[in-house]
């Protein structure tokens, strides 16, 4: 049995000969018409319990033996494995014909060592552009469900599993299905809260070729369709307040992007470890705080509506695992927490009933936290449309844990889910001399190097996990602060112009201000 720490068994010699014959048959049948007897309209042997029956193998380098079945399936006794002691390229595929034209989705459970040149599921020869979904690294040995969709025209399609791998790289695939319907992400977002201040202090943004341009325009051209902006009540530096949010909202909407407004209900950062009240509200009673939340939420959202930039989605609080507006809004007293959340949601609905309400927690891989939190919120009538999570793999667990949590809470509460924050470093050293949040090799997610390619791989795989949430309940992903580059004065502390930025190595613009390859995944459909 093969797991992350053990090598799979090579197939027996007889199986090698069978694989070669299968490949030859596949070449011969390629010239046959669609009604060939070996083609069917239904994917067969989807759990590989009958070995490779129904599947064909092809290797341009003659390494058919790198594709085989072995014990250790996800749900049954067997699985498909790609592995070889030497570098290899191999495809395992099944040709379908007699399909009704329309959208179809391939679903598969996978594991992967990582390290390949490429490892992916594909739908090809379907009468439309080939569709692929890359396999993520599964260093914890747990299976991850992936999907990929295509629009079939002409009644035929090839379901394909591919590896272009180095010696010792492996993948496992099991429990496939090919069913009518499509998947996709409707949110491919960027949080550009720091952008306004960066530009005012001289920040420059360039396309991949080095030509200077508007940061929002560059991200939009890369595929971003949603902008996220945080709101502080009375910040020390005058940024991320009502006025600045209105300004940036105009720019986002002018580019055809949608808008998520992220209310922190603070003068500074709000997260699970800090939910400090704004100074102007510090002496207010709980009842006054409920009024404050309503009035502040209504004021910002109504101003956005008045200038023609109505918010499409609103977060009532930021990473509110432990509540908001401490101590009155702490989850030590859930009734009070819920009352403050209802005030914010009521204000948002009063301005625009179509604006979606999101509730946002950190630690996106912690299912016990999410069940406890949303059970309490739901029991107290807190209205919400979307469950939003922060998921940073170096803090919040594995991709399989994220998937398990998103699958569970989307079904348990009947809501759509999204990753409201994620990011990953493209290098470890600092540009401004301020220690970066992630700056040591041991802090990285296994299988994801701190390189432009590793950053792109991370964003790709998070998006693939969200897309695979059943019932199309996975909305999408926001990349957090892609424009927060190392610009003097634009540091962590709004009260201290000399404070540095510990995030520039996780931006989507490199140290020469050029757009990084990860931005291309904002086109993910």
Structure overview:
It is built from 10 helices and 18 strands. By secondary structure, it is of the alpha/beta class. An 8-stranded parallel barrel has the order 11-12-13-14-15-16-17-18, surrounded by 4 helices. It has a 5-stranded antiparallel sheet with strand order 1-4-9-6-7. A 5-stranded antiparallel sheet has the order 2-3-10-5-8. The radius of gyration is 25 Å and the shape is globular.
Keywords:
single chain, five-stranded antiparallel β-sheet
Please compute the radius of gyration using only Cα atoms.
25 Å
Sheet-strand content, in percent, reads: 15-25%
| Terminus-to-terminus distance | 35 Å
Helix proportion range: 10-25%
- What composes the largest sheet? 8 strands, parallel, barrel
Tell me, briefly, the overall form: globular
């Amino acid at each position: 049995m093969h797991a992350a720490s053990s090598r799979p068994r090579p197939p027996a010699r007889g199986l090698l000969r069978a694989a070669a014959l299968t490949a030859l048959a596949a070449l011969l049948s390629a010239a046959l018409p669609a009604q060939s007897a070996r083609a069917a309209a239904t994917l067969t042997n989807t759990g590989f319990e009958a070995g490779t029956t129904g599947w064909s193998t092809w290797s341009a380098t003659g390494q058919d033996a790198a594709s085989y079945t072995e014990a250790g399936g996800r749900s049954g006794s067997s699985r498909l494995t790609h592995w070889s002691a030497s570098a290899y390229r191999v495809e395992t595929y099944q040709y379908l014909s007699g399909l009704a034209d329309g959208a179809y989705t391939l679903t598969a459970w996978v594991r992967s060592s990582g390290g390949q040149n490429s490892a992916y599921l594909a739908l090809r020869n379907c009468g439309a552009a080939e569709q692929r979904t890359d396999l993520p690294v599964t260093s914890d040995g747990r299976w991850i469900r992936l999907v990929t969709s295509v629009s079939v025209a002409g009644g035929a399609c090839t379901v394909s599993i591919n590896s272009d791998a180095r010696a010792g790289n492996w993948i496992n695939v099991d429990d496939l299905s090919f069913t009518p319907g499509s998947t996709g992400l409707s949110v491919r977002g960027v949080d550009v809260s720091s952008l306004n201040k960066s530009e005012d202090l001289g920040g420059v943004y360039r396309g991949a070729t080095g030509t200077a341009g508007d940061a929002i325009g560059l991200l939009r051209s890369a595929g971003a369709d949603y902008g996220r902006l945080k709101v502080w009540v009375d910040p020390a530096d005058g940024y991320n307040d009502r006025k600045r949010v209105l300004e940036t909202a105009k720019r986002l909407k002018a580019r055809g992007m949608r808008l998520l407004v992220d209310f922190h209900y603070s003068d500074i950062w709000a997260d699970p470890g800090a939910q400090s009240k704004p100074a102007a509200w510090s002496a207010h009673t709980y009842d006054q705080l409920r009024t404050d939340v309503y009035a502040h939420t209504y004021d910002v959202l109504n101003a956005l509506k008045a200038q023609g930039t109505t918010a499409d989605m609103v977060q009532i609080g930021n990473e509110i695992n432990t509540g908001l507006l401490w101590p009155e809004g702490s989850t030590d007293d859930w009734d009070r927490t819920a009352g403050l959340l209802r005030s914010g949601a009521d204000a948002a609905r009063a301005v625009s009933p179509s604006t979606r309400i999101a509730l946002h927690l950190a630690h996106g891989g912690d299912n016990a936290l999410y069940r406890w939190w949303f059970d309490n919120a739901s029991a107290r009538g807190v209205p919400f449309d979307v469950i939003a999570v922060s998921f940073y793999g170096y803090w919040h667990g594995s991709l399989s844990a994220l998937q398990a949590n998103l699958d569970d809470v989307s079904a348990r509460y009947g809501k759509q889910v999204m990753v409201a924050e994620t990011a990953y470093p493209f290098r470890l050293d600092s540009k401004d001399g301020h220690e970066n949040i992630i700056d040591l090799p041991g802090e990285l997610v296994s299988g994801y190097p701190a390189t432009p390619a590793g950053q792109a791989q991370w964003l790709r795989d998070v998006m693939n996990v969200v897309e695979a949430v059943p019932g199309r309940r996975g909305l999408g992903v926001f990349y957090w602060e892609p424009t927060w580059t190392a610009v003097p004065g634009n540091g962590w502390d709004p009260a201290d112009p000399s404070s540095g930025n510990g995030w520039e190595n996780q931006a989507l613009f490199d140290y020469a201000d050029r757009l990084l390859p990860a931005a291309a995944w904002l086109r993910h459909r």
